[in-house]
Amino acid sequence: MKPQTQDEPEDQDSDQTTAMRLTALRPLPVALSIGHYFAFVQEPEVRRVRIDAPGVTVGRQPPCEVVIPAVEVSRRHARIDIASQRATLTDLGSTNGTFLDGTRIAGPTPLVNGSLVSFGSVTARYERRDQREVAEEAELAGELRRAADYVRAILPQPLTDGPVQTDWWFVPSSQLGGDAFGYQYLDDDTFGGFVLDVSGHGIGSAMHAANVANAIRRRSLPGVDFRDPGQVAAGVNAVFPMEEHNGLMLTLWYFSYHLPTRALRFCAAGHHPSFLVSQPGAEPVPLWLKAPAIGMLPFGAWSVGRADIPPGARLYVFSDGAFEIVASNGQQWVIEDLRRIMQAPPQPELSESQRLYQAVRAAARPGQLDDDFSALVVHFS
């Protein structure tokens, strides 16, 4: 034993004792609770089905545990068995077959996390995940749904008669963006409307968009003449600076239409162009003037443009989620791709905004769109 010296404390810890004490302070690892799931994309959200041992049968109708009411799915289409924390997929003699990652299976086939399984034309993703993580994700998804419902609740009803008529289509993305829009008569002779897009995704962006939209809808911006688009942009900028709203900025396309003179005035505050189609099949004309986005600077100059509106014209106002998509061929769309859809003939069985959405949805890669889709179409008689 080493003799003590006068300078050494009598209770000095050894390196081994210190290491043992540090180890005792570390949090114990949390055991994973693995679950098996099928994730089906059902717009505007993902439906996730848990698969417990010993397994489930997939088919078009009960008593199958997983029911997919599609004509391409057989009454008893396939079976997923769970044993020793592993999943096995078996086709049950279905008419249209069961496919794993694009290949039709002929017998019991092991599933790998992330595999795509197709039952006829219906595709699901197999997931092997921690159940706590899935529960937290479901809770967040519920909060996003409630936020999306609130945004929908403040959207106006379509106008189906009168000198100005409107239709619109709104589909939130899985993460919920910051889109909002609205319109109203400002007085007997003036009709106003807007589309705005807040930066980012999630509940914060959505709620900020709703707050700004409510301020415009209620005309609560101090000292602003809402018939003047430039004043509206400046008023929103003064009330909603990004440094006071969690760093969120926004773009805004605002217009006012004077019915007696058929004059449209507009401001594109950091927003892309809207398009005016004078008659069916005519070339869509971009309505845009350079102006700063809202919330970035304490002041700015928001230019106001003007357009004469002929009878029968249509105005298309939309968010960038309507054209910033990845097509099924892997190509990134630009605004010109959406402009070509506007020029196509209307379909009597669809509203114009719905026609735009269906064309975009058909062109996009499978799954939900990456951003909110918002399209407002104004018809002038």
Chart the SSEs and their pairings:
Layout: H1 15-25, E1 34-42, E2 45-51, E3 55-59, E4 66-67, E5 78-83, E6 86-91, E7 98-100, E8 103-104, E9 109-110, E10 116-119, E11 122-130, H2 131-153, E12 164-171, E13 178-187, E14 190-198, H3 203-217, H4 229-239, E15 250-258, E16 263-269, E17 274-277, E18 285-287, E19 305-308, E20 314-318, H5 335-343, H6 352-363, E21 373-380
Parallel strand pairs: 3-4
Antiparallel strand pairs: 1-2, 1-11, 3-5, 5-6, 6-9, 7-8, 7-10, 10-11, 12-21, 13-14, 14-15, 15-16, 16-19, 17-18, 17-20, 20-21
Helix pairs in contact: 2-3
Molecular structure report:
- The protein is 21% helix and 32% strand.
- With 381 residues, the protein is an alpha+beta fold.
- The chain has helices spanning 15-25, 131-153, 203-217, 229-239, 335-343, 352-363; strands at 34-42, 45-51, 55-59, 66-67, 78-83, 86-91, 98-100, 103-104, 109-110, 116-119, 122-130, 164-171, 178-187, 190-198, 250-258, 263-269, 274-277, 285-287, 305-308, 314-318, 373-380.
- The chain has six helices and 21 strands.
- Helix 2 (131-153) runs parallel beside helix 3 (203-217).
- Strand 7 (98-100) and strand 8 (103-104) form a beta hairpin.
- The strands form four sheets. It has a six-stranded antiparallel β-sheet. It has a five-stranded mixed β-sheet with strand order 4-3-5-6-9, with no helix packed on it. Strands 12-21-20-17-18 form a five-stranded antiparallel β-sheet, with helices on one face.
